[in-house]
Each structure stands twice: as structure tokens, then as C-alpha cells.
Amino acid sequence: MNSSGTTAGLELVDVRAPGCSPADLAGAMSAEQAADLARILKALADPARLRVLALVAGNEGREVCVCDLTEPLGLSQPTVSHHLKVLVDAGFLTRDKRGVWAYFSLVPGALDAVATALPGARSTVDLS
Fold first, then answer.
1. CATH code of the domain containing 47
2. SS3 for 80?
């Protein structure tokens, strides 16, 4: 760059808005934290899994058997089992196998952790 602000015949232009200064991004999440959160959000990004969570959470703290979920969801037992596995792997549900049946319950605080993962974010969806 020479004294006139050009480099090899190209003029460098500041494209920032007047008065723009770098933001304080000290609270930004790391790449690893973002990857973990993305994996968790992918588990939630399915209508059937959201319905599973709502059914389990609405069961007032009691465990729910996989056999109790097929009818309300309108899905086959293998499909429901797949969705349950995804939710267990993501840390939203716990699984307790008893004989041939598996029972699932909500992990306390798991949904709260997602809600607080993005500081300053506000929900625009009314879930009531």
C-alpha cells in the first residue's frame, strides 16, 4: 500500500457505516459449543420428537412406556423407538429398560439448558 491508500492500483475503501466500531463479542460461544448446541437443536427439530417431549413432560413427572406413545403419535413402535433414542442421545430423556419394555422420563433441566444456551435470545413463539 502506498501513501495514497492504494495497493497495486486498487483503492481500499472502508465499507463500515459511519461511526461503526467493532462490537464487544467477548460472550460469543466457541465453535465446539456451537457444534454441541446444533446437535441438540437437531434432535428437537422434528415435529414427532417435539410431540414426544410434550407427551412425556405432560405426564407429571411419571415415566412413559414406549407402548403408550405409538397411538397418540400415530406412528409405529420402531419409529417411536427411533425418536426416543435420538432424544435420549441428546440428553432430553432417560431410558429404563424393564423386561421387553422401555420407560422414558424427562431429564430435569434439559430443556432449560437449551433455553439459556443463547444469552439474550427471546422466544417469538407462543407455546401456550
1. 1.10.10.10
2. helix
State the Cα–Cα distance between residues 88 and 60, nearest whole angstrom: 19
Rounded-to-integer distance, Cα 121 and Cα 123, Å: 7
Per the domain annotation, does 60 fall within a domain?
A: yes
Q: What is the DSSP letter of 75?
A: -
H or E element at residue 73:
helix 70-73
**Based on the structure, what is the number of domains in the chain?**
1
Q: pLDDT tens for residues 102-116?
A: 999 999 888 887 777
- Whether residue 90 lies inside any domain: the answer is yes
46-94 pLDDT, tens digit each: 999 999 999 998 887 689 999 899 999 999 999 999 999 999 999 999 9
Whole-structure pTM value: 0.70
Q: Indicate the length of the chain as a whole number.
A: 128
Beta bridge partners of 6: 11
